[in-house]
Amino acid sequence: MGVVANPLEKNAGWPGEEEAPVSPEAEENKAIVRRFLEETMAKGNLDVIDELAAPDFVDRTLLPGQGPTREDFKRSVAEIRDVYSITSFIIEEQIAEGDTIVTKYRQSSVQRREVIGVPPTGEEITGEGIYIHRISGGKITEEWGIFDALPAMEGLAQEIRERERIEQDLKVARTIQQASLPKKVPQLEGWQINPYYQPAREVGGDFYDFHFLSEGRLGLVTGDATGKGVPAALVMSTTCGMLQAVSQTLDSTSPGEVLSRVNETLVARIPQNMFVTCFYAVLDPSSASLSFANAGHDLPYLWHGGCCEELRARGMPLGLMPGMSYEEGEVALREGHNVLFYSDGLVEAHDPKGEMFGFPRLRARVAEHGEERSLGGLLLEELYSFVGEGWEQEDDITLLTLKRSASRS
């Protein structure tokens, strides 16, 4: 940090005024003020306040919540230095008039704490100011201060505007996302369907949906659009609408065909740097068969009899390349079988040491708790125990369980 003093041998006036001789007492008073400012503002030495400020010192420049006494002044200086790191403090000029010293200075600082809800920017801000001190018996008895806070206020105002814009974007993204999710969960005799959805503060592109098809069949979809905020929410909403429209228009038993049609449409309609992962399944309750196709999404887990296996099918994410075909798989679901669909927000969550929750841990927990009806709730409890208190959720978390109920004897 630069600390520069400019003591004048003569009592310089403001530009254009003649210089006048300075008395030894005035020079001594100027030196007291210089040391006072350099030690407190530039170096953060608060002990010098007790040394150079009179016991009845009065601070005449108060902000809300500040007091005028010497002890109050020490607290105010400490609070200022806690928020701002002063990188340069330069005394440019001093004028002595009787027992009063006027000091013009220039100060640079970097914000290092949150101010009015605005986080630190890391940028250095420079401003100019004037201090007026009254001296009596070699002690400072009063202080007035004027600081040109315009540069800092302009920076703060810009940060507030940016923060408000981000908050508005988050609100819009969250509204789009919520509007795209299903309002009701299908009720099928002999089946239990339970979605769990927890958005992160910085809205991602997670989604899930249900498609009612002919002959009592049900389409189930989970997916994730890349990115955050409004762009991700718009792509997610577009994909949800396309999947719904294509699945009901085709009324096809082929989930691979549905993904292929949606991919062709998305390629031409979403930004080139974005894509969507998606797992699409069609449940036939009458035959208890689940056919599925995968567009680059995390593999669902099927629990049966204490075992946990992946539902594998190959395919590229939606919106990347035209002309894609999607491999299909099919599995028969017996009584008690439980399928977990999920998004990467669960497996990519980190504990305080930076370790990920991960696929092995998830698979082990599904194998352990797969017969439970509330598998999703149990997995979330495991997640919260893993990440600990104070966890800031990094991404949306979506879980969807499909379980065939045991027959009643």
What does this molecule look like?
By secondary structure, the protein is of the alpha+beta class. The chain has two domains: 2-152, Roll (Nuclear Transport Factor 2, Chain: A), CATH 3.10.450.50; 172-404, Phosphatase 2c, domain 1 (4-Layer Sandwich), CATH 3.60.40.10. The protein has nine helices and 16 strands. The protein has helices spanning 24-42, 47-52, 70-83, 150-180, 229-250, 255-267, 344-347, 359-369, 375-387; strands at 2-4, 53-59, 84-97, 100-111, 124-136, 139-147, 191-198, 205-212, 218-225, 276-284, 289-295, 301-304, 307-310, 328-332, 338-342, 397-404. The chain has a six-stranded mixed sheet with strand order 1-3-4-5-6-2, with helices on both faces. Strands 7-16-15-12-13 form a five-stranded antiparallel sheet. Helix 4 (150-180) runs parallel beside helix 5 (229-250) and helix 5 (229-250) crosses helix 6.
What is the chain-wise order of helices and strands? EHHEHEEEEHEEEHHEEEEEEHHHE
Based on helices, strands and strand pairing, what is the structural class? Answer: alpha+beta
**Which percent band covers the strand fraction?**
25-35%
CATH topology of the largest domain: Phosphatase 2c, domain 1
CATH class identity of the largest domain: Alpha Beta
Strand order of the largest sheet: 1-3-4-5-6-2
Show unreliable segments.
Answer: 1-15
CATH architectural type of the largest domain: 4-Layer Sandwich
Oligomer classification: single chain
How many β-strands, per DSSP?
16
Tell me about the biggest sheet? Answer: 6 strands, mixed
Shape: elongated
